[in-house]
Design a protein that fits this description.
GO terms for molecular function: ABC-type transporter activity; ATP binding; ATP hydrolysis activity. By secondary structure, the protein is of the alpha/beta class. The chain is built from 24 helices and 13 strands. The chain binds adenosine-5'-triphosphate (ATP).
């Protein structure tokens, strides 16, 4: 049968008769000292409609080769033609619907049901719901899978592998790439799977070509052709019977061992010859770079008589295999974006607890902020040493101290008061002199003629714990205020003009804001902006990295999705989530905590959502450079502090070194916070510079970051 198949294949008049044709394919991982050459001048020929068993020891490069074939990996040099064109070539269905790929790892969404999983991939492949249903029913029965409403996470390991297998079979692709599909499958089912593979490869309609790797070498005897792979090369590529016959052996395993032994000897001989030649000062590298590839192909046709070089080989002589269009807007498929969005919403629905937490998290953060940050501290324990017991002025001064903020603790002596500060019982003490009443009256009466002794005795002394600057400053301010009020009262009692006691600075009606600004109100816009930004960054990073880590992203890309489609679908899904988050956040800030706002709400929402969009774009960059969730979380968290600092949200930008100021001004958050502050306090007016500056900076940054993320993903794709 194998022979007739090969004859049929050799006789085909197609431009590219082979389903997969590879010539001198090289692929390495890493660079410099860490470079690992995995595929080393590999030649391969898989006839159309054949079952091709790719056999080889662990780590010899089988998965790498398969990923190059489905267009998920770039190879370094050589030629690879899959179903008539380069994998990834523009308009080619690989990666895409021409191929069904079952990766080695399960690569399934644990939170989705079997039916939802198949529907997701069916939509990507452009199947309508009727045909998805029909194929799902067939595959469930054929692979003895549980009901379609069972969650993937509730399945056994073997069942998960079968679901993964069914995903590859779902759309009846022309080419099936199966990386160890029979692992964890019982012998009976394994036999049925092979029967099915044989039937679809030989069906009278569209013949399916199947490349399969397996650790059960003997099961590959059912293949039409096997490729025995070692160290990134194919040692032999023949029909199993031919191999057994040629090597006079009765098992493929023995043939493989024998070929490995021969190859090892050949390597040793080659190495010896190389060493001898090198000693003679001759260049004897095995790869002759000057040799034209086409010529090399002709030579190899003699070595591998079944390899037929495609006529248009020069078209495919690009160094990279997967060079097709993956991110141009014209190539976006709405059905792919829709499939991805449905999948995202399904996963959200499945994890309703986390979704509610996501909705509430910004609200919790703003509530905590409004409750705890920017408010005046109260009940501060403050020691009082009042030696002016004979007079009235000391007591009068103390009654003017804000009793809400300062809780007075009397002490009988300065030493006792200082001990309380040292023991951490009070934040400081106020010391009032014995002669305070007489001295203060004298001071006001004589003014410029007052003696130094009068001035000293009429001065109250503060001994503060300055380790907490904020509290110390508040106490100073409260004492200064109390002194001013006390002085005014005293002057009134003596029929003098109380204005003499005032500091000769008058705060007129402010241009914007109030004369009693609230720190909370000042901080609120920046906090709203940063909460939205970092939540979007963190959640985007995490969701992308998790999909990438579990091979789900790779599988979607192999099914024909593009990274831009995945990004757009994520942006749209996340925008819905963010809209709810922002709504709850603004209700808390504006309605419950009365952060003042003048501008139209829609403009506030636009500014905040735009900042979330910017955060998502940054998250996509993080996820494209991180391979696991811990590094992604570190990236997202690590960026929080410097971004907050540089953006002027936790400290005015004007207070940081000049060169950093320039960086800060270029950050979107700085201008966005300014813009939001402006809209909240002055109302929307497009002519106000902070508003359009904030809008344009955020917009520019978002699009720029998205573009960078798309480029990184494109390069890594
Ligand atoms: N992303 C990667 N980065 C660096 N090295 C890699 C990467 N993927 C695979 N390798 C290395 O490339 C070599 C071939 O790996 P590959 O997965 O292709 O082997 P395999 O033949 O499929 O093995 P197995 O049968 O165990 O799955 C291995 O040495 C592996 O460590």
């Amino acid at each position: 049968m194998a022979a007739s198949l090969e004859n049929g294949y050799l006789g085909m008049q197609d431009e590219y008769p082979a389903a997969v044709w590879g010539k001198d394919v090289n692929k390495s991982y890493g660079r410099g000292k860490n470079k690992l050459s995995v595929l080393q001048g590999l030649n391969m020929n898989v006839p159309r409609g054949a079952i091709y068993g790719l056999l080889g020891p662990s780590g010899c490069g089988k998965t790498t080769l398969l990923r190059c074939i489905v267009g998920r990996l770039h190879f370094d040099s050589g030629h690879l033609i899959v179903l008539g064109d380069r994998p990834g070539a523009q308009g080619h269905g690989i990666p895409g619907s021409m191929v069904g790929y079952m990766p080695q790892e399960t690569a399934l969404f644990n939170e989705m049901t079997i039916g939802e999983t198949l529907s997701y991939f069916g939509r990507i492949h452009g199947m309508n719901s009727e045909s998805i249903k029909k194929r799902t029913n067939f595959l469930l029965e054929f692979l003895t899978l549980p009901k379609p409403n069972r969650l993937v996470k509730e399945l056994s390991g073997g069942q998960k592998r079968r679901v993964s297998f069914s995903v590859a079979l779902l759309h009846e692709p022309e080419l099936l790439i199966l990386d160890e599909p029979t692992v964890g499958v019982d012998p009976l089912l394994r036999e049925r799977i092979w029967k099915h593979l044989l039937s679809i490869s030989q069906s009278s309609g569209q013949k399916t070509t199947i490349i399969i790797t397996t650790h059960y070498i003997e099961e590959a005897r059912q293949a039409n052709r096997v490729g025995l792979m070692r160290s990134g090369r194919l040692l032999a590529e023949e029909a199993p019977d031919t191999l057994l016959h040629q090597n006079h052996m009765d098992s493929l395993e023995s043939v493989f061992l024998e070929l490995c032994r021969e190859d090892k000897n050949e390597d040793n001989t080659q190495d010896n010859v190389t060493v001898n030649k090198k000693n003679q000062g001759q260049d004897c590298s095995r790869d002759n770079d000057d040799e034209p590839l086409l010529d090399a192909g002709l030579n190899d046709t003699i070595l591998y008589p079944n390899i037929i070089a495609p006529r248009n080989i020069t078209d495919s002589s690009g160094v990279h295999g997967a060079g097709g269009c993956k991110c141009c807007v014209k190539c976006l498929h709405p059905r792919n974006i829709l499939a991805q969005m449905i999948k995202n919403f399904t996963l959200m629905k499945r994890n309703i607890g986390f979704l509610l937490f996501e909705f509430m998290l910004p609200a919790i953060q703003i509530v905590l902020f409004c409750l705890c940050i920017g408010r005046d501290p109260y009940d501060l324990q403050f020691g009082v040493v009042n030696m002016d017991t004979q007079g009235f002025a000391g007591n009068l001064l103390l009654t003017n101290l804000d009793s809400q903020v300062i809780h007075q603790v009397p002490y009988s002596s300065l030493d006792a008061g200082l001990d309380s500060v040292k023991a951490g019982k009070t934040w400081g003490i106020i010391y009032i002199n014995y002669n305070f009443t007489i001295a203060i009256i004298d001071r006001f009466a004589k003014c410029a003629n007052a003696s130094n002794t009068t001035l000293d005795e009429s001065t109250v002394k503060l001994h503060l714990d300055m380790t907490n600057q904020q509290i110390a400053l508040i106490i100073q301010e409260k004492v200064a205020q109390a002194f001013q009020d006390f002085s005014s009262n005293l002057l009134i009692q003596f029929h003098k003009n109380p204005a003499i006691a005032q500091v000769p600075i008058k705060l007129e009606t402010p241009v914007y804001g109030s004369n009693m600004p609230s720190f909370t109100n000042f901080m609120a816009p920046g906090v709203i902006i940063s909460i939205t930004f970092f939540l979007a960054t963190g959640l985007t990073t995490l969701s992308f990295v998790l999909e990438k880590k579990e091979g789900l992203l790779d599988r979607s890309l192999a099914a024909g999705m593009t990274s831009v489609e995945i990004m757009l679908a994520h942006v749209m899904t996340q925008l819905v989530v963010m809209a709810v988050q922002v709504a709850i956040l603004l209700v808390c800030a504006l309605l419950i905590f009365h952060v003042p706002y003048e501008g139209p709400l829609i403009w506030v929402i636009v500014l905040v959502l735009l900042q979330g969009f910017c955060g998502m774009a940054l998250g996509m960059i993080f996820s494209s450079i991180c391979d696991n969730e811990s590094s992604a979380i570190q990236c997202a968290l690590g960026s929080v502090y410097p971004m907050l600092l540089l953006s002027g949200i936790i400290w005015p930008v004007e207070a940081i070194p000049t060169w950093m100021r320039y960086i800060s001004y270029s950050l979107p958050m700085t201008y966005a916070a300014d813009a939001l502050r402006c809209v909240l306090s002055r109302g929307w007016d497009i002519t106000l510079m902070p508003v359009w500056r904030g809008f344009l900076t955020t917009m520019g940054w978002s699009l720029g970051l998205l573009l960078i993320a798309a480029i990184i993903l494109r390069i890594k794709q």
